[in-house]
Amino acid sequence: MALSGRHPVNEPANEPAPGDCRARARNRGSLRTLGAAAALAAAALAAPPGRAADAGAKEGAALRSAFPEAERFTSRDLLLGDDLAARIEKLSRARVRERLVTFYTAWKGEAVAGYAVIHSHVVRTKRETFTLAFEPDGRIRRITILAFLEPEEYRPGERWLRQFQGKGAGDRLAVGDDIAPITGATLTARGIAERSRWLLQALKVAVGPEAAP
């Protein structure tokens, strides 16, 4: 099944009232972190109008770069309860810190062109944000680094990132196994590999049997 969207990404959505935003924030107080896309949205709400527009534009640009053929995008939040998060951790051999993940569906006409997630995590002491794009069958299409705040020598190169293309939830995606290491940047390599593993499993939950085994 295709993801059912809350609203097309390239169409304006109704903004919640400030009081509603505060109430929702209190309700999520037990969540350790939000998904990268949700964090971008929260930042956009809190930012001045110019910055909010910039955040939305960057998110849209990242999706269009991953799927230039797409005519529209829809989004859906996947809430990971403790049991589901534990199951994904076991299958992916990776720790799942987030409890809310936003998946995007790229559409070309009435056909699904693929899926994507925008994810952010701390590498050593500073953040990295990347787009993980999937083919319609759930295999990885590409990984694109959107922001990397660690020193540039720790940044993964395009050639290294291309190793992930075509990988699915059944692949090991382990550094030193089917993924080559990055000399002097072990945390960078392991961080992307681990997030890719559990996001592949999360995508299977979101879209069902269409995702690759």
In short:
The chain contains six helices and five strands. It has helices at residues 18-27, 36-46, 49-66, 82-92, 158-161, 186-207; strands spanning 72-79, 100-108, 111-122, 127-134, 140-148.
Describe this protein's structure.
The protein has 213 residues and is of the alpha+beta class. The chain is 36% helix and 22% strand. The chain is built from six helices and five strands; from the N terminus they run αααβαββββαα. The protein has helices at residues 18-27, 36-46, 49-66, 82-92, 158-161, 186-207; strands at 72-79, 100-108, 111-122, 127-134, 140-148. A hairpin with a 5-residue loop joins strand 4 and strand 5.
Question: Topology, pairings included?
Answer:
Elements: H1 18-27, H2 36-46, H3 49-66, E1 72-79, H4 82-92, E2 100-108, E3 111-122, E4 127-134, E5 140-148, H5 158-161, H6 186-207
Antiparallel strand pairs: 1-2, 2-3, 3-4, 4-5
Average pLDDT score = 81
Major sheet attributes: 5 strands, antiparallel
Order of helices and strands: HHHEHEEEEHH
> What percentage of residues falls in helices of 4 or more residues?
25-40%
Biggest sheet, spatial arrangement of strands: 1-2-3-4-5
Model regions low in confidence, pLDDT < 50 over at least 5 residues: 7-53
Number of helices: 6
Compute the number of strand runs. Answer: 5
- Structural category is alpha+beta
Cα distance spanning the termini: 15 Å
Strand content: 15-25%
What is the overall shape?
globular
Gyration radius, rounded: 17 Å
